[in-house]
Design brief:
Elements lengths: L16 H23 L15 E8 L2 E7 L3 E8 L6 E9 L5 E7 L2 E8 L5 E7 L2 E4 L6
Antiparallel strand pairs: 1-2, 2-3, 3-6, 4-5, 4-7, 7-8
Length: 143
């Protein structure tokens, strides 16, 4: 049995177009509801869901925003997120696995710099983020 108990091979059966449209409508409604819950109109940028996958590993807050580091099984990911999005300002994020070159993203952004991702299976990592000249670093973590 497939989604909502509808059988099929993925092709619309003769006369089954109504069921397929109903399933698509229900999926669209579900996706819209999840979008409102995760990032509704009252959510600020600091509350927004990150573009990184994995679980949160470390968050370093500073006056103008925060540096967020995430870890999945084999990768680490980092973003720098502005506390108050709006005008463009210089932002950067850099992530490095021990023994490898750092990977970064910098520019004039309104909301966030990154995401940047590095392979980090069984390796320490460090991340640095800055917004408008204010910078913070994690030091070596996840060792």
């Amino acid at each position: 049995m497939g989604l909502l108990g509808i059988r099929g091979t993925g092709r619309a059966a003769k006369g089954g177009g109504g069921r397929q449209a109903l399933v698509q409508l229900l999926v669209l409604a579900l996706v819209s509801a999840v979008g409102l819950v995760l990032g509704g109109t009252g959510a600020s940028s600091a509350d927004a869901v990150s573009a990184c996958g994995g679980r949160p590993a470390k968050t370093v807050k500073f006056a103008t925003g925060e540096l967020r580091v995430y870890r999945s099984r084999a990768y680490a990911c980092a973003v720098t997120v502005a506390k108050k999005p709006g005008k463009r300002r210089q932002m950067s994020v850099q992530l490095q696995a021990r023994g490898a070159r750092p990977v970064g993203d910098s520019g004039r952004y309104t909301t966030q710099a990154g995401p940047v991702t590095v392979p980090a299976l069984h390796r320490c990592i460090r991340a640095t983020g800055s917004i408008s000249g204010t910078s913070r670093s994690t030091g070596w973590i996840l060792c």
